[in-house]
Amino acid sequence: MRHRSVADLMTPGAVAVQLGTAFGEIARLLDEYDISAVPVVDGAGRTLGVVSEADLLRRHIDRTPSNTAASLMTSPAVVARPQWSAIRAARVMEEKGVKRLPVVDEEGLLIGVLSRGDLVQLFLRRDRAIQEEILEDVLTRTLNVPPSAVTVEVSDGTVTLSGTLARRSLVVVAVRLCESVDGVVEVINRLTYETDDRAALKDRTPIEPPEPV
BON domain location, by residue (predicted)? Predict the structure, then answer.
């Protein structure tokens, strides 16, 4: 299975400002491009910080003399790498409380921006694409399950699995893998199994390491 990465979802060629960009110009850019924050870069294009709507409002409320990106920005910027998974980027957004992540390369150069709206694209995958990935990648290639053994139905991102697998433990693995497929909202498990092997696995005596000599 291949999860879509930040590079797949980001908006390339991000709007950015320089350290000396004035308050009014930043506010105009946020309004013109309908964005909530803008990266601040140096002359080489390296990301130094971010100016958000919250930063502009803070300056307005506190009546501070800050009037350029250099004094308004939050630094260092919370950034993402293009090779990150979308899930990792979403977790960073949640943990840091930000709506947009500048995407930078190994040298810190700005190459794009990932927004919450971009991440929503994960849940707009066509049902047919989700179904094909589950049948071909999850069941056939990963679990070596014959396509005829399981019926996969997908409706608005909700996956329903029905059929019979050889072992109970395989049912658990199949459900977890399907839940991790991009675009899946929920998995309804109607699978049955021929053998309950979970009790046997639980009762296995662990091999103890040899005593030191």
Answer: 127-195
Is the Cα torsion angle 112, 116, 117, 118 positive or negative in sign?
A: positive
User: What is the residue whose two structure tokens read 């991102």?
Assistant: 157
Distances (CA, A) of 117 to 15, 23, 35, 40, 124: 16, 25, 11, 21, 11
DSSP string, 119-150: HHGGGG--HHHHHHHIIIIIIIIIS---GGGE
- Residue 61's H or E segment, with its range, is helix 53-62
This model's pTM is above 0.90: no
Classify 17 in phi/psi space as left (phi over 0), alpha (psi -120 to 50) or beta.
beta
Residue given tokens 């608005």 in the structure block: 156
**Number of neighbours of residue 121 by Cβ within 10 angstroms:** 14
Mean pLDDT by groups of 10 residues along the chain of 213 residues: 82 92 94 94 94 88 80 93 90 91 94 91 84 94 92 94 95 94 92 85 50 44
